[in-house]
């Protein structure tokens, strides 16, 4: 099947409406105690509260009660890839995990960094290099991210979107459950595994998750999902919706947020998007620049 994708800006609010924000989500009473992924109703498998978004993103308040412990453990592998993907830049922010601020270690360049309770950032280095530069009251740091699996990052985002759906809508995606639950499961879906991504947003300390649903008849997927975590903003279009099979894939429209229109070093504009349908562990080069206040010093 021929698939031609056309990214559209400035139309997303015309095409989609808010389905639910994570901060306002509540598991419906009739859905509690039944796992939406494997179907178990064994209450002994619901001993832990499942976070809607991983706790390391700063989510301490939003939970779902229709995800069993076994499925939650399966999804932890996907969460680890998302954490590895964004750990470098977000380690510069006061975002706590379960008990403390996470420590980021760059084994390639030989340094580590960790946010502290006194609102300071501790950077420890074992060797000199161009990965850390201080000039004109600015600090510039670069790093190779921790290894991550692109498909697992994508699955983590899709899983959060699924968690926000009521059963009547999630049932449209039933054909994708085996793909979601299979750690090595890779397929070629009708909706490509594309992730829109921008790592340079004004940072936040608590994540924002928003599920969108198409409100008009339009040649675009029925659902889209936006996730904001620290410096990062993501957008995906959950695959496997049975209703999306009726779309014209030769002229598929993907309404996206303006934040994904970026300019490269040559001054050319483009759409920041990635094909995430890969199971190989990779690393990417990330950079961050921040200013120093005049009353702050770097301690060695």
Shape: globular
Number of domains: 2
Q: How many distinct helices? A: 5
Chain-averaged pLDDT:
91
List the strand order in the largest sheet. Answer: 2-11-12-13-10-17
Helix content: 10-25%
Strand content of the residues, in percent?
A: 25-35%
| Strand-pairing-aware structural class | alpha+beta
Beta-strand segment tally: 18
Q: N-to-C SSE series? A: EHEEEHEEEEEHHHEEEEEEEEE
Distance between the termini: 59 Å
Question: For the report, how would you describe the main beta sheet?
Answer: 6 strands, antiparallel
Q: Can you tell me the residue ranges where pLDDT is under 50 for at least 5 consecutive residues?
A: 295-300
Radius of gyration: 20 Å
Structural write-up:
By secondary structure, the chain is of the alpha+beta class. The chain folds into two domains: 5-81 and 149-275, no CATH class; 88-147 and 285-291, no CATH class. The protein has five helices and 18 strands. The strands form six sheets. A six-stranded antiparallel beta sheet has the order 2-11-12-13-10-17. A three-stranded antiparallel beta sheet has the order 5-6-7, with no helix packed on it. A three-stranded antiparallel beta sheet has the order 8-9-18, with no helix packed on it. Helix 2 (69-90) packs across helix 3. The N and C termini lie far apart (59 Å). The model is unreliable at 295-300 (pLDDT under 50).
Keywords for this entry:
300 residues, alpha+beta, 2 domains, six-stranded antiparallel β-sheet, three-stranded antiparallel β-sheet, 5 helices, 18 strands, globular, disordered C terminus
